[in-house]
Design brief:
heterotetramer, A alpha/beta (448), B mainly alpha (310), C mainly alpha (188), D mainly alpha (120), A: 448 residues, alpha/beta, Cytochrome-c3 Hydrogenase, chain B, five-stranded parallel beta sheet, four-stranded antiparallel beta sheet, 15 helices, C: 188 residues, mainly alpha, 6 helices, 67% helix, 2% strand, extended
């Protein structure tokens, strides 16, 4: 009895101390939420974590298309007790909310304050932790099967403890060892939201990969278009100011950089970049050049990316793959066809190597160039031609660079070590959201 | 017989230093991160944060996976922490203030570092999770590569002392510190020290591209113990670096223990700063560079320092 | 009291070594088998240290950590069911193994009774290491250089046997596959 | 403990640290909680569930390097006693070790040329 009392007292004391800790949040970015979620990195009151095991609150931001309810439920159940879920709609309608999650908490005022309040209540026992959503069922019935009831028979047969074992497969090394089938996504923190890959791994090397059709692509939008991509989608159907467009492009490139820096363990430098992106002005060209030097010194453009994920120019020719193509030396850019750019002295920047480092350099160079263009553009406006050069490449009613590039992904990733594969994927800056809204914009234009 | 404290005193002292070291490390790391990120620093929050986050992890429940190796999972962080404690126990604060100074203290420290790879492999293997498993194998490659440069870089410091006892090694640095005697010793030791506790550029087993690697399935106390043990190891590596390269307790004006603490913190800052200023290395590259560059360099270092002694 | 503690620690190491060594063959998981063996070696290292051979004891632990990790990696690589998810029997040729094991144990255990052991106190640990060094280095270069050449041949042998993609291309190219009936078929 | 000397103290510290860590971990499990459900125990893969056990015949791409390590690691056994008597023995120790190391470096050189340090 006394021991129980002591335990309770200790728990309460710890709870009071822990309530002030930065809230560990596993954030899921739906449509219209990418920047908002990213900006949470700058908030000292919370901490974005990479796996549900490290989190206390599951933050679901923006609109989520159908088909993601089950992965979300799995994520939710993977959070340790005590846990809570917070929905941050960001303009998405209540219809998109997966019904298993009721009752849920919606943000009231600031999302950080709400998260802190949830944590405080959870730790002080004022709010019960959420029970699991999914039923307690084994994927395969296995209990009681086999000599020890573990579900398997023989050396490698059956489904011991509910899963089969990996099977042998061929490999470039000539050894026949196991090939591990693994499906990763759609909320793997280093992948763009919605990307799921079907992988086959021999050791840490990818022997086969196939992208799974993303629930984000092809479906009608369920939220609002995120702020950074908005202007490029608008430019499809209406004239927009060149200065605003170019500033948005530079900002998108810097936001990409902030995420890419997290992937190479330079999160604190990433926060600096994020702040620069949020407050970017046309006069910030020098800051970007300084940043470029810093990236070379930190070897982010260096040993982390040199020679990784080389994509030859021939593979992406005519694809409108934007920075990916220009990093490989192709001067493809929709802006060269836009009369609004004719007097600005615009000339696409290109690199030669086509590797991840070249793509990093390319985006930095383009960010600086965009600021110069924005400074010179005055009040020029673009001429809508049905296609726009977005930060990821050609954007038109049919889709964006990501949609067109996706079928090349297996060829790019095969044979890479896992770390190199992630570096490559990050350097591609894939985005499924842009295309969804571009299609809607086209549909809207056709309807009107 | 060589110097040592009574077991009870040693356990309490090492435990206290370990906890204090981990706390200082957490604060320093966060401070450096804030400086690099350019955030405004609030001292109160900075000092409280490690304690608050630690308490939070204590209150979170542990997770488990579908079919883990439960015993291995429990043992790995404990083993890692135990090895860090042993490594730290070898570091003398002054000529006669040391938890334990075996005649082969040097080998004991090296053995502790070698056993770390078992702890990390075990930790990555146990949850039966793909990312953790990849982390474990990466550390295998990393550990087998840094092991020899590490031993060699440290070995050169034993030459002038003619002994494998850490106290003797520090004692032999009265006139000249080993950092001067062995030009390549300290840089090599620091590179490898970062690799041992997989910090920053050499955080390959618990990397961001593996969503946390070996620690991906851990929550609550598991995570706290793992992170704590890892930080403790870095403290031990820094403290040992201060002892064998920077002359340990030798220094003017201040008492010996103060010098040891100062030098340890200085090395810690260097080790931690690398985490915020250098991008992660690719594993294949690290293996290659270790064997083709670091090992010959370490051997050369042994020879140059040997030749200087003759 | 001191003697009692020393005895206790000795028995801890001794019994621990035997038990973990036994567990090596009674576990299903390759990783556990490798690390049980490591624990067994660590116990032996502890006993060596108790006997005054501090250096040898510690070096044993240092070496075995690396060695057992490599063993675990290779065993997991090539054994079916490496994690022991399905139960399995680690011992082959059971009866021969029992006889061989019991025989070698008896042979080794009889050594203390048949050998005339020296009756002088062991040197202090630091002197032991120095003596070992003098033994290795002094007098003849043969010890050291033989060891060097042996290790070199081990390294080259390991690379030759295990490596496939050398600087002259794949190992199978132009080589003969061992066939059931000669002559073999050329591969590659 | 006195007889065990400094190594005994190191052992005591080791055992105490492991014991403390295990104790903390165990006490965190009190009071007993309900057994987690199967979905709660899913290994992390970004929201998807794994199809097979992660434990597999893992192709460690550095196995040749691991074998070279085994040989090179043995060299350290000889280096330690050498370091202790180096100053005492003087030039002869220097020359002996020089030859020893050169021979071993030949092995590394060979392994490098055979690309044994690259991913298989």
């Amino acid at each position: 009895m006394a021991r129980a009392g002591l335990q309770l007292g200790l728990k309460q004391a710890l709870g009071r101390v822990a309530a002030g800790a930065p809230v560990p949040v596993f954030a899921v970015a739906g449509q219209g939420a990418r920047e908002h979620v990213q900006d949470l990195r700058l908030d000292g009151r919370l901490r974005l974590v990479d796996s549900p095991g490290a989190a206390m609150v599951l933050l679901i931001a923006g609109g989520l298309p159908d088909g993601l309810a089950e992965p979300l439920a799995h994520l939710h159940d993977s959070l340790p007790h005590p846990r809570a879920t917070l929905w941050w709609p960001l303009g998405a309608g209540p219809a998109t909310w997966p019904q298993q999650f009721v009752p849920t908490i919606e943000t009231r005022d600031g999302v950080s304050e709400t998260l802190q309040a949830i944590q405080r209540e959870l730790l002080r026992g004022q709010r019960p932790g959420e029970p699991p959503i999914l039923p307690d069922e084994d994927p395969v019935p296995w209990k009681g099967v086999g000599p020890y009831g573990q579900g398997g028979t023989g050396m490698t047969g059956g489904t011991p403890y509910g899963r089969p074992m990996a099977e042998l497969g061929a490999d470039r090394d000539g050894l026949r060892l196991d090939v591990l089938p693994l499906r990763i996504g759609p909320f793997f923190p280093r992948f763009p939201p919605g990307l799921t890959l079907d992988l086959k791994l021999a050791g840490d090397v990818i022997v086969d990969v196939a992208p799974v059709e993303s629930p984000f692509a092809g479906a009608p939008p369920v939220g609002v278009c995120r702020a950074g991509a908005r202007i490029f989608v608008d430019a499809l159907s209406q004239p927009v100011p060149v200065a605003g467009l170019e500033l948005a492009r530079a900002r998108e490139h810097l936001r990409w950089l902030a995420d890419a820096l997290v992937a190479v363990e330079l999160g604190s430098l990433g926060s600096r970049v994020l702040r620069l992106a949020a407050e970017l002005r046309t006069s910030d060209g020098d800051s970007i050049r300084t940043l470029g030097r810093a990236l070379r010194r930190t070897q982010a453009i260096g040993w982390a990316t040199n020679g990784v994920g080389r994509i030859p120019a021939a593979a992406v020719e005519g694809l409108g793959a934007g920075p990916i193509a220009r990093a490989a030396g192709l001067p493809e850019d929709e802006r060269t066809h836009d009369p609004a750019y004719s007097g600005l002295g615009f000339e696409p920047i290109v690199q030669r190597d086509g590797d991840a480092a070249a793509r990093w350099r390319q985006r930095l160079g383009e960010a600086a160039q965009s600021l110069e263009l924005a400074a010179r553009a005055g009040d020029r406006r673009t001429v809508p031609t049905g296609s726009v050069e977005s930060p990821r490449g050609r954007l038109d009613g049919e889709g964006n660079a990501t949609a067109r590039f996706l079928h090349l992904l297996p060829g790019v990733l095969q044979g890479l070590e896992w770390g190199d594969a992630v570096t490559t994927l990050v350097s591609l800056d894939l985005d499924f959201e842009e295309a969804v809204f571009a299609e809607t914009a086209r549909a809207g234009a056709v309807a009107s | 017989m060589r110097d040592y404290a009574s077991p009870g005193v040693a356990i309490v002292a090492v435990g206290a230093i370990l906890v204090a070291g981990v706390y200082v490390l957490a604060v320093l790391d966060r401070l450096l991160g804030m400086i690099v990120a350019g955030t405004s620093i609030r001292l109160g929050a900075l000092l409280a944060e490690p304690v608050q986050s630690g308490a939070l992890l204590v209150l979170q429940e542990r997770r488990t996976t579908e079919r883990p190796d439960a015993a291995g999972w429990a043992l790995a962080p404990a083993l890692f922490g135990g090895l860090a404690a042993v490594a730290l126990a070898m570091v003398p604060l002054d000529r006669d203030i040391v938890a334990a100074d075996p005649a082969t203290g040097f080998v004991v420290f090296s053995a502790a570092i070698a056993m770390v790879m078992i702890a990390i492999y075990l930790h990555g293997w146990s949850p039966n999770s793909a990312f953790a498993l990849h982390g474990a194998y990466r550390y295998g490659a990393q550990a087998l590569s840094f092991q020899i440069p590490f031993l060699l870089a440290m070995l050169a410091t034993a030459l002038p002392a003619e002994s494998l006892s850490i106290v003797d090694i520090v004692d032999a640095q009265k006139s000249v510190w080993n950092v001067v005697r062995e030009p390549a010793g300290l840089p090599l030791y620091l590179v490898v020290g970062v690799a041992v506790s997989f910090w920053g550029p050499l955080n390959l087993p618990d990397a961001a591209d593996l969503a946390g690697g070996t620690v991906v399935e851990d929550s609550g106390l598991d995570r706290l113990l793992w992170k704590g043990a890892r930080a403790a190891m870095l403290v031990a590596v820094a403290a040992m670096g201060a002892a064998v390269f920077l002359g340990g307790w030798w220094g003017p004006w201040l008492p010996g223990p103060a010098w040891v603490v100062l030098k340890t913190v200085a090395l810690l800052v260097v080790l931690l700063a690398s985490g915020h200023l250098l991008a992660r290395v690719r594993i294949e590259q690290f293996v290659f560079v270790s064997w083709v560059l670091l090992i010959p360099l370490a051997l050369l270092n042994v020879f140059v320092s040997g030749a200087l002694l003759l | 009291m001191n003697g009692l503690i020393t005895d206790g620690v000795f028995w801890l190491f001794a019994v621990g070594s035997v038990v973990t060594a036994f567990r090596v063959f009674r576990t299903d998981s390759m990783m556990r088998a490798a690390f049980f063996l490591l624990a067994s070696f660590a116990g032996v290292g502890g006993i060596l240290a108790l006997l005054g051979a501090e250096f040898l004891g510690m070096v044993l632990i240092l070496m075995m950590a690396g060695e057992m990790l490599v063993m675990a990696i290779v065993m997991v690589m090539f054994m079916m069911n490496p994690a022991g998810l399905n139960p399995m029997w680690m011992v082959h040729q059971h009866r021969v193994a029992v006889v061989a094991g019991a025989g070698s144990f008896l042979a080794l255990a009889s050594l203390p009774f048949v050998v005339d052991l020296p009756d002088r106190p062991a040197p202090r640990p630091e002197e032991a290491t120095a003596e070992l060094g003098t033994e290795l280095l002094g007098g003849s270069m043969l010890v050291f250089q033989t060891a060097g050449v042996t290790l070199l041949s081990a390294m080259i042998g390991a690379v030759v046997i295990a490596h496939r993609n050398g600087r002259f291309g794949e190992a199978e190219q132009g080589s003969l596959e061992p066939a059931l009936e000669p002559p073999g078929e050329e591969k590659g | 403990m006195i007889l065990l000397g400094p190594l005994g103290v190191a052992l005591a510290v080791f055992v105490a640290a492991i014991g403390a860590a295990l104790f903390v971990r165990l006490s965190g499990d009190l009071p007993r909680r309900p057994v987690p459900t199967t979905p709660e125990r899913t290994p992390f893969a970004g929201g998807e569930t794994p199809a097979v056990h992660a434990w597999n015949r893992y192709h460690a791409r550095y196995y040749v390097m691991a074998l070279v390590f085994l040989a090179f690691d043995m060299e350290m056994v000889f280096m330690y006693p050498w370091a202790v008597v180096f100053v005492r023995e003087g030039g002869i120790a220097f020359v002996e070790m020089g030859m020893f190391i050169t021979v071993l470096l030949l092995g590394v050189l060979y392994a490098w040329r055979e690309r044994a340090f690259n991913w298989a």
